[in-house]
Amino acid sequence: MRKVVVIGGGISGLSAAHQLLVKGYDVTILEASPRIGGKIFTMEFAGMPIDTGPDAFLEREPEMKELCSALGLAGELVAPVSQSAKIWVDGALHTLPKSQFLGIPLDLEELASLDLISPEGIQTAQNDFTNEDTGRHEDETVGSLIRRRLGDEVMDKLVGPLLGGINAGDPDKISLRAGVPYLATATDLDFSLIRSIKEFVRSSDRDPKAPVFLTHPDGLSKIIDALGEELKGKIVLNENVHSVVQEKGKWIVQGRENLEANAVILSTPAYVSAGILRNTNNEVAKLLSSINYASMAFVLFAFPSGAVEPFDGSGFLVAKSEGLLMTACSWSSSKWGHLGKDQKTFIRVSAGRVDDDRVFNLDDGELVSKLLDELSLMVGLKAAPSESQVVRWPKSFPQYEVGHTRKVEEIQKRLQREIPGIYVAGAAFNGLGLSACIRDARINVQKVENYLEKNT
User: Fold this and answer.
1) pLDDT score for 209
2) DSSP class per residue in 159-186
3) How many CB atoms lie within 10 A of CB 119?
4) CB 251 within 8 A of CB 262
5) Who contacts 387 (Cβ-Cβ below 8 Å, separation ≥6)?
6) Please, what are the domains in the chain?
7) Which helix (H) or strand (E) covers residue 254, if one does?
8) Three-state DSSP class for residue 124
9) Which of 145, 161, 241, 428 gives 270 a disulfide partner, CB atoms 3.0 to 4.6 angstroms apart?
């Protein structure tokens, strides 16, 4: 039987292994930590299952829903009961425009009525309808596009906080086509950014009543647990792989014990994969090491419900210009119906950006205290939490900077040409979302199949 070793037990590695197992391959998953799931990690907090990494996935992308269907979980998925969000900018909470696309306003009259952008900023955005776009080039940043077409205010007060909150990144450094391909596609129909996006939304034929996000009420680890059951006996935990070498036409995965494989998929973070491949192919390792990562933390709070004023919405974003530790606040009890039924108010705060490591210079107690001070400033929250929990994610959010697509193409070319049978998958390459990770896993499984058909 053809043997495939998957290194890394996050959603990319697990979904790749699951697909290989279904296709009849002999699969082993090696995971360095004591658990599988990677950044998907649900913990019991104040008596309820709370996600400490991603807490939902995009409904419009099919891969995660298809995986849930294959695992018999699709019928259990739920959507947020509140999808309206706010933004903290200029020292106050503002309502986000209802007519917007990834933070890009589509109705400037509505935007003007919200007192978020100055009259001068609205006028700058109006120029998008008449000024031809002569500044486009193949690989530009999100920030360069938005600033050129709609102005600095729209970028700094709307688009930046929303997109920056997705990956703790800086949209002025993130590649438009690599980092936000859905937005890149939406900009190709008209020189006017607003008209182009409107036309894209119309042509996408998406049901406006369909939910944007879905999750499992027991937390996303429910999906990981189901994958773990499917892969029972195939997973080795606490296994640190330090290298992969070729011997007699096969790959030897070196850890506590050596494992022989016909093919290997590395679904570890790019910098970890770089370390494993350093002695196998140093040029590939250098390219992998050059993919930057951001660090951030989530802080969970539980309050007695009577001690906290209800919040109208699912949460709020925080503009970078405010200089606060907080990047976003999810009012989980308002966002998710299953959490709102408990006699507690659950709030999840994220902190840390690609260019701001203050979070990691604070111990847990200091971080909790400072974020409570910020919540007091923003929403007048004065109550002491009944419980709090800090979960840190160092070097966990890959940054798709300008040149990322070319870099990934070069990695793939070198792998195929110089070390065939070795593959890399995961969030560092072709998309950050959970469905994107599963999609990348599928692509690599197909590569493994093609390779093994020719070489075994």
Assistant:
1) 75
2) IHHHHHHHHT--TTTBBHHHH-HHHHHH
3) 8
4) yes
5) 45, 46, 300, 301, 302
6) 3-39+67-74+218-292+401-455 (3.50.50.60), 98-203 (1.10.3110.10), 293-398 (3.90.660.20)
7) strand 250-254
8) helix
9) 428
Residue with tokens 């999609």: 439
Rounded to 5 degrees, what are φ and ψ at 261? -145, 150
Amino acid of residue 307: A
d(CA 61, CA 440): 13
224, two tokens: 């990981």
**Longest Cα pair distance anywhere in the chain, in angstroms?**
71
3-state secondary structure of 69: helix
CA distance 268 to 12: 9
- Amino acid symbol at 208: P
* Residue-level length of the chain: 456
Cα separation, 233 vs 219, whole angstroms: 24
Cα radius of gyration (the chain): 23
- Token digits for 113? 């009525």
DSSP run (H or E) holding 24: none
Provide the CA 288 distance to its chain's centre, in angstroms.
19
Nearest CA to 353 out of 314, 397, 400, 388 is that of 397
Map residue 455 onto helix, strand or coil. Answer: helix
Phi-psi region of 434 (alpha: psi -120 to 50; beta: other; left: phi over 0): alpha
Q: Which helix (H) or strand (E) holds 318?
A: strand 315-318
Share of the chain above pLDDT 70, in %: 100
Over range 57-86, report the average pLDDT. 93
User: Which tokens in the block code for residue 441?
Assistant: 């896993």
β-strand partners of 42: 51
Residue 248 has pLDDT above 70, yes or no: yes
How many whole angstroms separate alpha carbon 292 and alpha carbon 399? 5
Dist. CA 395–CA 392, nearest whole Å:
10
Measure the CA–CA gap between 168 and 267, rounded to whole angstroms.
21
Q: Say if residues 89 and 161 touch (Cβ distance below 8 Å).
A: yes
Does pTM surpass 0.90?
yes
**pLDDT over 90 at 438, yes or no:** yes
